[in-house]
Amino acid sequence: MQLIDQHTKRIMEGCKERARAAGLRFSDETLEYIVTNRDMLELSPKVMIPTLYDFWVHDVEVLKEKGRYELYPHNPYETVINTRPPISFYNDNNPDWLNVMIFYHVLAHIDFFQNNQFFRHTWEYDLTGQALADKRLIARLRSEKGRWVDYVIEFARGADNLVGYYDELAALDRPPATHQARRRDFYFDHFLQSVKRVRTADYIKEIERYNASMTGYGELGDDNFFAEVMKRYPEFEVMFHKHLEERAPGRPDLLRFLMEHSPFLNRDENKWMLAVIEIVRKTSIYFQPQIRTKIMNEGWASYWHERLFMEDQRISGHEVDFARVHAGVTSLPRVGLNPYALGMRLFQQLEEGAERGRYTFEFQRLRDAAARERYDAATGKGREFIFQVREHLSDFLFINSYVDQEFINRHRLFVAGKRLNQQRMVWEYYVKSRSADDYRRMLLDLLYHPPAISIDRQKSADGALYLYHRFEDKPLVQEFIGNTMLGIEFLWGGKVLLETSEVVAPPPREGYGGAKVEEEVVYWRRVVYTMENRKLTKANL
Q1: SS (H, E, C) 150-187
Q2: b/e for 462-501, b at 16 or more Cβ within 10 A?
Q3: What does the alpha-carbon distance between residue 276 and residue 156 come to, in Å, rounded to a whole number?
Q4: How far apart are alpha carbons 366 and 383 in whole angstroms?
Q5: Three-class SS of residue 284?
Q6: Which candidate, 232, 211, 231, places its Cα nearest to that of 222?
Q7: Are 279 and 134 in contact (CB under 8 A)?
Q8: Tens digit of pLDDT for each residue in 474-486?
Q9: Nearest to residue 288, comparing CAs of 474, 129, 450, 170?
Q10: Residue 319's CB: how many other CB atoms inside 10 A?
Q11: How far apart are CA 174 and CA 176, in angstroms?
């Protein structure tokens, strides 16, 4: 692995000038390395971070990728990582025209990393430097503790998809809560709704009374309002102070909760494990936004490499070569999902729609199909609109907001079904639906969506840890439950229980003539898994 030569670096600097002129924003300093395919295979399991800590799974992944490469040789065009400065890796045999295209793609990725709000917890964080310090710490602990370090890493990685990414993100912009704010939140969010269960009309009257008090009395408005509350509800003050005493500080995720409350981890002889778990946790949180913005990120980069490449005079004579490579990257498959293709076409449609004013209230009010087709306000704000989308959305919001029937019809998209041809004994794919709702639902089901698991402190009695799975019509993968709970039991140092939902057989129903009828309705039942002394049991609730 080595830095690109000066000739190639001048090409990159020229691409930076043109990208900035088009509106992209990114840091001045970037590092570009030339790597071989073997280097790519060895870096991929470490998420392309050369300084990431060593772990045996990385070696297994390298061997697996080498075997796959021998069967299916391929040339990866580029990889870029969100570091300070950004680091990108390139194949060692790219011609100059291809490097121009790839550099534009990379610069758009960097623009996305450094401006999308879902990455803002990474903006002041040097991952490569921190990863190197973490790697040295783990190497030192291995020399002292031996294989136990790898056990802790493996057990922590088994639950590292449960980290509180959104809580960490929200904390960056959350102002410190004052006593008045806590009292107000408790009164409106809990006391009126859960304790008194007031009617909606009375609830709205209380909000209006609070607003009138704040307007009429200024800084004393809060105290004036609650003086009246305590006349009406004498028990309020006592309940509020009890709430403050019982309220847990924040909503710690599972790994954070284990670090703070595990009796086993907080023994003096085991406190070294806390550092290892924190390394796994913060590394997972760092990469969470890349998982949640895959379609947007790749679509944004593909949109810009196409636009900027075609306007660059340096590629004259290589238009056909570009078309061939570009089509291979951004072609829409008939079955399956290509994030590059889907994201790029969505950004293109958004720009075109914003130029014509199709995201205004005036256009949304139109009901006549012909009038909607002719509508063109010529706003000139298409480019500005897609920059705002790039800044504020994730894949879920991007798809849920903008994959509409017009987009489906324009690109002839559909949801494919799969069935067995009984006569020929082959699987057949067919057009199952061309509805935007169905296609959107298919895309959302493909997105990264870790389970929502919280700690139930009331049921965590007698030294046990009770985990509650908030069911969202997606069951946990049963084959992973045992090993994951085994690791959590080790880190907790005692019994662990997990409440979740599983599919059960529907009750038998008799049809005409006493024949049993099979129902296609899915029935769910709450169950609880218990891991105690490395043995897993299950019981129905």
Answers
A1: HHHHHHHHCCHHHCCHHHHHHHHHCCCCCHHHHHHHHH
A2: eeebbbbbebeeeebeeeebeebbbbbbbbbbbbbbbbbb
A3: 8
A4: 24
A5: helix
A6: 211
A7: yes
A8: 899 999 999 999 9
A9: 450
A10: 12
A11: 7
Residue 230: per-residue pLDDT: 86
Query: Where does residue 252 rank: exposed (0-12), middle (13-18), buried (19+ CB within 10 A)?
Result: middle
Q: Which helix (H) or strand (E) holds 112?
A: helix 96-115
Question: Which DSSP symbol is given to 25?
Answer: -
Q: Looking at residue 514, what is its pLDDT?
A: 58
Amino acid sitting at position 484: T
Q: Residue 442 corresponds to which tokens in the numbers above?
A: 């298919």
Q: Determine the Cα–Cα distance for residues 230 and 239; give it in Å rounded to an integer.
A: 11
Euclidean distance between CA atoms 264 and 280, whole angstroms = 18
342 close to 299: Cβ distance less than 8 angstroms? yes
Q: Which residues of 269-286 are buried (b: 16+ CB within 10 A; e: fewer)?
A: ebebbbebbebbbbbbbb
Q: Which residues of the chain have pLDDT under 70?
A: 60-77, 173-177, 245-251, 507-520
Is residue 35 within 8 A of residue 1, CB to CB? The reply is: yes
Q: What is the pLDDT of residue 519?
A: 60
- Spatial CA neighbour of 270 closest among 162, 163, 151: 151
User: Which run of H or of E encompasses 32?
Assistant: strand 31-35
What is the token pair recorded at 34?
């030339």
Residue in this structure with the two tokens 């803002």, named with its chain if needed: 120
Tokens of 474: 């997606």
Strands (E), 338-451: 415-421, 426-433
Residue spans of beta strands (DSSP E) within 49-97: 78-81, 87-91
- Taking the C-alpha atoms of residue 196 and residue 182, their distance in angstroms, rounded to an integer, is 18
CA distance 383 to 402: 16
- Upper half-sphere CA count for residue 186 (Cβ side, 13 Å): 21
- Establish whether the linkage from the previous residue to 252 is cis, with ω within 30° of 0: no
45, two tokens: 């399991």
